[in-house]
Amino acid sequence: DIKVGQKTAQAGWQGKSRMAAARQGIVDGFTNSSAEGFRLEGFDNRPPVLASMDPLLDVGGTEKAKEKTVKKAQRIMLQRLPASDILAHFIDVHQEPADPGEAKLESTMA
């Protein structure tokens, strides 16, 4: 899910208030919208390398954080990805299907 445009909110457009548009303008400044004119909002069926990224690693990891905080941090991580990284993760199929793990390695054929 990619949101296109350097400015992704306009006051008065579909009932958006000036305050909500200003708040969205601040978000746009921190994301890839201001640099490349679009940002990644969501990613269904993420490849394992993208799913394993922990945006809260520097502050103790996702295990210690609340679910809402983890969700927001992952969303911000996606919104800041440059186009080259988005494309690299989109075409990443080298680990499909998922790694079976050490326990099933002897009985699973690649």
Can you describe this structure?
By secondary structure, the chain is mainly alpha-helical. The chain has helices at about 20-30, 35, 50, 65-80, 85-90, and strands spanning about 1-5, 40. The protein has a two-stranded antiparallel sheet with strand order 1-2. The protein is elongated. The two termini are about 30 Å apart. The mean pLDDT is about 80.
Number of strands: 2
Q: Low-confidence stretches at least 5 residues in length (pLDDT < 50)? A: none
Described by strand count, sense and barrel closure, the largest sheet is: 2 strands, antiparallel
By secondary-structure content and strand pairing, the structural class works out as mainly alpha
Strand order of the largest sheet: 1-2
Q: Which percent range fits the helix content?
A: 25-40%
The helix-strand sequence is EHHEHHH
Q: What is the CA–CA distance across the termini?
A: 31 Å
Radius of gyration: 18 Å
Name the shape in a single word. elongated
Number of helices: 5
Mean pLDDT value: 82
In brief:
The protein has 110 residues and is mainly alpha-helical. It has 5 helices and 2 strands, in the order βααβααα.
Outline the fold blueprint.
Layout: E1 2-4, H1 18-30, H2 33-36, E2 38-40, H3 48-51, H4 67-79, H5 83-90
Antiparallel strand pairs: 1-2
Q: Which key phrases capture this entry?
A:
mainly alpha; two-stranded antiparallel sheet; 110 residues
